[in-house]
Amino acid sequence: MMWSAAGVETEIDLGDEGDSEDSEDQQPWKTQLATVMEEEEEEDEVSTQSDTRPLLNERDPRQINECLKVSFEDVIAEPEAVRSGDRVWIWSHALFEVSRVWFYRIITALLAVPVSVIAGILFAVLSCLHIWLFSPCVKVIFINTGWLETLWSSVLDIIILPFFQSVAKCCRGISVQLTRQ
After folding, report:
1. Where are the transmembrane segments (predicted)?
2. What are the residues whose beta carbons fall under 8 Å from the beta carbon of 10, sequence distance 6 or more?
């Protein structure tokens, strides 16, 4: 027995049901089949882990555009009290789905490449600025202001901390009792 990708059980008859022994030495096809299936699983794992190879089946693996999963029933719904004819409802549903899919395909065919190029250039410029300008500037500031961190820590330890500790000791003796009169 083998399981296909759709989860339906498929029976393969190899004509060896009359054999009394099921050892793998007498049935080399079992080991070959297991080896092929393991290799296919490894290839599937590698293809899903690769960032450079586009995944054709899973185009939103991080569920970024979860809000765009819209069906006809999410947009148009008729209550029981007000209903159109069944044919109108069926044709409306069909036209909604067809127009949504085809207009999306047409618009993406026109805009996908230019928008991808612009987004690529934008992210390249931002990455370059971040790597070569912002990060070094922040490091220079941190290096040159290390003495401020030491100074601020000393001010907190010498002045601020003792002041609030003494205020806390003064307020420790205060107690409030509520009585009902």
Report:
1. 102-135, 141-164
2. 1, 2, 3, 4
CA–CA distance, 76 with 43 (Å, rounded to integer): 43
* 125-127-130 Cα angle (round to 5): 110
Q: Alpha-carbon distance 24 to 9, whole Å?
A: 22
C-alpha distance from residue 40 to each of 3, 21, 47, 64 (Å): 14, 28, 10, 29
The pTM of the full predicted model, rounded to 2 decimals, is 0.45
Residue 91 resides in a domain: yes
Query: What total number of domains does the chain contain?
Result: 1
**Do residues 90 and 97 make contact, with C-beta atoms less than 8 angstroms apart?**
no
Domain ranges, residue 62: 30-168
**177 in any annotated domain:** no
Q: How far apart are CA 71 and CA 162, in angstroms?
A: 65
- Distance, in Å, from the CA atom of 2 to the CA atom of 11, rounded to the nearest integer, reads 6
In the block, tokens 């089949």 appear at 33
- Contact between 92 and 76 under an 8 Å Cβ cutoff? The reply is yes
Is 99 domain-assigned? Answer: yes
Coil, helix or strand at residue 95: helix
Q: For residue range 81-109, what is the model confidence (pLDDT) as tens digits? A: 888 888 888 898 889 889 989 999 999 99
Q: Is residue 149 part of a domain?
A: yes
Cα atoms in the Cβ-side hemisphere of radius 13 Å centred on 140:
6
